């Protein structure tokens, strides 16, 4: 295929078609299914399926796409997280520039054995109840979780931020869901450098656009991730991620992207009251119609 694509590009005088693959994020499957150094020679993009990492088949609650391992994870479960999968692929020979991290815009759902026991790793009796629209047990679409409709799961639910794994979960009655939200998407992008309902149109896509479309200078060497909570309040940010603060422009504002009053090429990314001042890539301006960087 690689040779055929190269030949076609030569004959047509056009860029070669890209070769990509969706690959497992599970250590056991990676070890037996892929010759990583060899396949990396021919791949343009390697899309890690860093979702569906936990589900009702486990018999206990767990996050669908945790950024890090949980404090009680044991055995192979400690490998089922985005950070481990990303680094395992890199350590086995996959170039970092080929790796794409997968983002799941849905929830894995569970039915609790005992509604009074509703934390992480709580016993479950099966998949969660099917959603009103998707009609499939064990999962909910994002609009079934967060919309302004009466049927939204989060209406009347208890929401919990799972700080060690940097993702949320929620429970209501005997139902428990592990899901993603704009905050967890932002944190995942900032850590990995990456593959909608009452929050504006396509909130997840806007988060990804804002985090990935900013101007970024050469990155410093990758450092080992700290064991402390990544999402705790801080005024220190990595180069290229924008300046951050817990007051100022974003104080009292809803999560989202806002144009800068001083530059058409800059914008503010508000996350839980913290202010991230960011800039579009050269030649682009912030477009309020899509909350994204766009051509002039």
UniProtKB/TrEMBL annotation:
GO terms for cellular component: extracellular region. Pfam families: CBM_14, Glyco_hydro_18. Residues 1-233 form the GH18 domain. The keyword Disulfide bond applies. One of its GO terms (biological process) is polysaccharide catabolic process. SUPFAM superfamilies: (Trans)glycosidases, Chitinase insertion domain, Invertebrate chitin-binding proteins. Residues 247-296 form the Chitin-binding type-2 domain. Belongs to the glycosyl hydrolase 18 family. Chitinase class II subfamily. PANTHER family: CHITINASE (PTHR11177:SF405). This is chitinase. It comes from Balaenoptera musculus (Blue whale).
